[in-house]
Structures are given as structure tokens and as C-alpha cells.
Amino acid sequence: MDILTKMKQFNRGDYQRDNFDAFLKKEKFSFNIPSVHIAGSNGKGSTAYYISSILKNAGYKVGSFTSPYFYKPNELIKINDVDISDDDINSIFDEYEKMFKKYDLSFYEIMTFIAFKYFQNNKCDVCVIECCLGGEYDATNIFEPILSIITTIALEHTHVLGSTLTEIAAHKGGIIKENVPVLLGNIVEEESLNTIAEIAKEKEAPINRIGEIASFELLEKGIRFSYDTFKDLEISSDAYYSITDACIAVEAVKTLKNHFNITLDAIKSGLKEVVIPVRMETINEHPRIIVDGAHNPEGINALVDSYNRKFAGTVTHIVFACFRDKNITTMLPRIGLAGSEVILTTFDHPRARTYEDYFLFAEDYRFEEDHIALIKSLMEQYPDDNILVTGSLAFASLVKKELIR
Asked: What does each C-alpha distance from 262 to 58, 64, 142, 256, 258 come to in angstroms?
């Protein structure tokens, strides 16, 4: 039985952690590997990739837990950028399956536990752990890190995290621990900053924020930039917004140097080696097809800014699909700033918007039911133009899989 089939029975849809906490208490489980914990609305996955790569290049055995996965659950759990094997997942799953069922754990709680057990079994030197949703009640929030990072705060998952930035910031700030340093990324909203500052003050956790990017240069492939005293750093991503994530990683490393020996060469190599999937990723050259997982207004803003810096003057056809809970009233006009037309579509996912969900926008935007037929038609009609696929991480990754398999 494959892993996805095994996991289908664990589909509890709520975000309460009571069952998971009870399970961990029963198992007397604790996680003590030195770790970095990352929360945030956007950029936390990319930041995790960069930090993990730098630590790996510094010679350490690095466990990383990120989400979501694109094709297989194995992608969530890595050691030194190598996915956990089916055998290792099955070994831990089979050992605890009865207890997983007894405590009615969710898929994500099970994968979190498998990740932490796997990292312990393999004696990782350090781990980089990304929250799935929120922070305070996230399944990963069961250990004391050596550094907590909050990348950004935006209005998303409001049905779970609350309808204001203050409420969402409180959830993200739930990863802050007593006397553990906190690093903030590109957070500018006063209500978010004040909320986090209050939590940090209560926990006596020192706060640091990333500084300004000193300079940058768009290369034929990737970006060269300078940050703080670090000159001529490079990332392979074409997305300008990725510089911020890389700067968070560099700033994090300055704190981690108290725990690990990290050289400038490790920082430079670590940043340059990272290839972040479906983040302004080119998956076809002629015509150029770019996939990006921007899925909220802030992500769309960052994508439009990055895209227009790189491809100003290029005719672009935008293929857009998103989940029902996303703010398309804001997202659609903004993504339109990156292209000559926006075409709406859908994809096979229970949360995906369908034609009926776009009815308010029917007069302004064309809709095509079959996204692959649409993209192939655009490829044939416009071989010299760009095609930008975005609106959802799930949609962008699905298109990538369908077009390059």
C-alpha cells in the first residue's frame, strides 16, 4: 500500500492540537535537536530552503521539514536535501499506526511526528522546521528552538487564524519561546509588529529585524545582491522577492554562528545552490512558461513586482486559478498588471474555484475549463510570448507536473 493510500484515513479537518498533545504525552516524546522554527504568511518555505542549504554547506547534517509537498509526501521531510524514503516513512508509520488511529491524528500531525522521529533516528546536527499554518497551534510547535523566525504576516486562512492582522500575528507569534531570539522578515504593518513585540517582551525574547538590501543586479539567470557586510551574494531564482528570503537566511546565520561554525563560502554556496520550485520558475523556454505559487494579495504583489523587473515589455498571457477562500477581488486586478490578458481556469482539487465561483467576474475575464488545453493552445498561438501560471501553489505545481512529465 502506498503512503498516500495509507494516509487517506487520517483526514481530520480541524486545526485543534489536543489529540496530538495527548499522543505525544502518552509516548513521552520530546524533540531536542537544535532547530530553527519558521512561521509566516509568505516566504517561510524559501527561507527554510536557504537556511538548510547554508548549514549543509557548512558541513552539518541538516533535517528539514517544509510544506506543502508537490508530488509525494516524502518531499516534506529531508536530510541534506534528500527526501525521506518510502521505507523510512513506512517503518515509523507501521510502528505507531495503532496509536495514530487511537488518538485520531491528522495527516499533518502524523507527518510532523514521522519527521521528528526520522531526524532523531538519523542523529541530525540541526533542523529547520517550517510551520504549516499559523504557529501557536501548529503541530510543529512542540519544541524549543534556538531561533524563531516570522517572515511576513498577511490576511489569509482567516477562518482559522482570525480576520485581523492582530489576530493572525498573535498566532504566528505563538512560536516565540522564553529567551529565544526572534528574527522578523518583511513585516511593516504596525498592528502586526506591536502584537509580536508584546509577545516577545512577555517571553523576554530578543527581537531582530532584517535590514535593507544594499544593492542588486538581475543576471541572465538569477540575481546578485549585497546585504549588510555580505557582498556579491547570488541566488539562482529570477524572483526579486526571493532576495528578502535570502536576506532573512543570512541574518539568521549571524545568530546561528553562536551555535555553529559557518563560513562566508558556506553562505555563498548555500544560497546559490538552492532551486525553489514554482517560485517564478521557468519550466519551458519556447514559449517561455513560468509557474509561480503566489496565492494571496501580498504574494501576487511580490510576483508582479519581480516579474515586471525581469520581463518588462514582454507580452504575457496569465493563466490564473485559485482556491475558493482567496481574495480574488484584490488579486485579479493586481495580477493583471503583469500581463496583456488574464484567463481564468480551474483544476482538480476540492477547494479549487470553478466557473460558478467566478460568476462575478464573467464579464471582465475569459474562463476556460481545461487548463492544459488552454496552455497548449496559448503555446501554439503565441510562441514568442510568455505564459505565466499562478494563483495557487497547488495549481502551479500541478501544471509543472503535467507539462514536464
From this structure: 5, 18, 27, 8, 10
Q: How confident is the model at residue 284, as a pLDDT?
A: 96
354/180 Cα distance (integer angstroms): 45
Distance of CA 216 to the CA centre of its chain: 23
> What is the grid cell recorded at 40?
509566516
pLDDT at 9 exceeding the cut of 70: no
The pLDDT value given to residue 71: 86
Domains of the chain by start residue, with CATH: 3-273 (3.40.1190.10), 281-404 (3.90.190.20)
**Size of the chain in residues:** 405
Give, to the nearest 10 degrees, the angle between helix 264-273 and helix 44-57.
130
Q: How far apart are alpha carbons 28 and 50 in whole angstroms?
A: 32
Identify whether the C-beta of residue 118 lies closer than 8 Å to the C-beta of residue 33: no
Residue 155 scores a pLDDT above 90: no
Task: Report how far residue 151's alpha carbon sits from residue 256's, in angstroms, rounded to the nearest whole number.
Answer: 17
Side-chain half-sphere CA neighbours of 305 within 13 A: 10
User: 35-62: b or e for each residue (b if 16 or more CB lie within 10 Å)?
Assistant: bbbbbbbbbbbbbbbbbbbbbbbbebbb
Instruction: Report CA dihedral (137, 296, 4, 49) to the nearest 10 degrees.
Output: -80
Please report, in angstroms and rounded to a whole number, the separation of the first and last CA atoms in the chain: 24
Q: What is the pLDDT of residue 159?
A: 64
Average pLDDT, the chain: 94
| Mean pLDDT confidence for 274-296 | 95
Q: Which helix or strand (DSSP H or E) is residue 49 part of?
A: helix 44-57
Beta strands in 124-229 (DSSP E): 126-130, 147-150, 182-184, 207-209, 213-218, 223-227
242 — phi, psi (to 5°)? -70, -20
